[in-house]
Amino acid sequence: MAKLKKKCDERLERWFEEAMERIKKATGARTQVQLADVLEVRQSSISDAKRRCSVPSDWFLKLYRSHGLNPNWLSDGQEPVYLNASRGAVAAENLLREAPASYGRTNARGRIVQVSSMAGAGTDPAVWTPQPAEDLSIPESFHRPELQVLRVDSAAMEPLIMRGAFVGVDMAQRQHPDGDLCAVHFPHQGLLLRRVYCQDGQFVLKAEDKAHADLLVPAAEMAARTLGRVIWVMQGLNLQG
Question: Are 77 and 153 within one domain?
Fold first, then answer.
């Protein structure tokens, strides 16, 4: 009789997510492709590990050799972060800002995420790639597996989203329900935040500030140019006037 595979329970899923998040933060890997490169494995190996809720022990060994990371910290958050700090890619203090909270109190937990500029890296005008500019602490409940955090550099969505606000974009949500806020790439401009409407076989992108003209994107191009849907905004209140 075939041996039954052990299913991931909530505790194991949580442990796996936290361990992988520490690996990503310590190595600067933001995507599964980048993580596979760092670990020198196939992307399918990462998917397999996620399905099993198990981080292979040789990954911890590789990360010690390549980045000086402490396997105990990667696995369970036990300090110190580095056993060989000279190989560290990220300062240890930047990796230890997460406020501790007991398991299950999701809204009391936080995590540090990287924030990119709307312009992105700018290496290829046809494709938007993130350019980390700063770190931000967000509530754990704000996090998503494919979250990209941006610092807004335009007044086009004021007063709804102010210039300087932080927005969270879920890159797994790429549909375009009428009126939803999406981050859409425009060559040589970077990302723009707009309300999206489908009209007559094309997409109309509208700003909140009516001084900004509507933008039109052919339906055939929209999927490739959409980074994702805006799911939260962090900003101060504008109490002037």
Answer: no
Q: Is 41 exposed, middle or buried (0-12, 13-18, 19+ CB in 10 A)?
A: middle
* 130 preceded by a cis bond (ω within 30 of 0): no
| 187-199 mean pLDDT | 92
Q: Which residue is listed with tokens 């009516």?
A: 210
Cβ contact 73:88 at 8 Å = no
Q: How many domains does the chain have?
A: 2
The 3 state secondary structure assigned to the chain is CCCCCCCCCHHHHHHHHHHHHHHHHHHCCCCHHHHHHHHCCCHHHHHHHHHHCCCCHHHHHHHHHHHCECHHHHHHCCCCCECCHHHCCCCHHHHCCCCCCCCCCHHHCEEEEEEEECCCCCCCCCCCCCCEEEEEEEEHHHCCCCEEEEECCCCCCCCCCCCCCEEEEECCCCCCCCCEEEEEEECCCEEEEEEEEEECCEEEEECCCCCCCCEEEEHHHHHHHEEEEEEEEECCCCCCC
Identify the domain containing residue 42 by its residue range. 9-92
Note the pLDDT tens digit of each residue in 52-109: 999 999 999 999 999 899 999 998 888 888 888 777 766 676 676 654 444 445 555 6
Judged against a pLDDT cut of 70, whether residue 200 lies above it is answered with yes
